Amino acid sequence: MKIENIKLEHDLIGAINSRIRSKDVDWNNAEQVETHMKKFAREYPKMLVDELLEK
């Protein structure tokens, strides 16, 4: 694996993780967490493509 690929993968993981950790979610409220994660799961493919296109 090339170093560029490893850096891209690391950047993608960081960008996606920051989107998962929304400040708008009360992480102690199971219902809010469940709703947020379902929304994230639906939007994940688009986020991944957007991040790749930005690189």
How would you briefly describe this protein structure?
The protein is mainly α and 55 residues long. The protein is built from two helices and no strands.
Characterise this structure.
The protein has helices at 3-20, 30-54. Helix 1 runs antiparallel to helix 2 (30-54). It is an all-alpha fold. The protein has one domain (3-54).
Beta-strand percentage? Answer: under 5%
Element-level helix/strand string? HH
Q: Overall mean pLDDT score?
A: 78
How far apart, in Å, are the first and last alpha carbons? 18 Å
Tally of DSSP helical segments: 2
Largest sheet: none
Uncertain residue segments: none
Q: Structural class of the helix and strand makeup?
A: mainly alpha
Keywords summarizing the entry:
single chain, 55 residues, mainly alpha, 0% strand, elongated
Describe the secondary-structure layout.
Layout: H1 3-20, H2 30-54
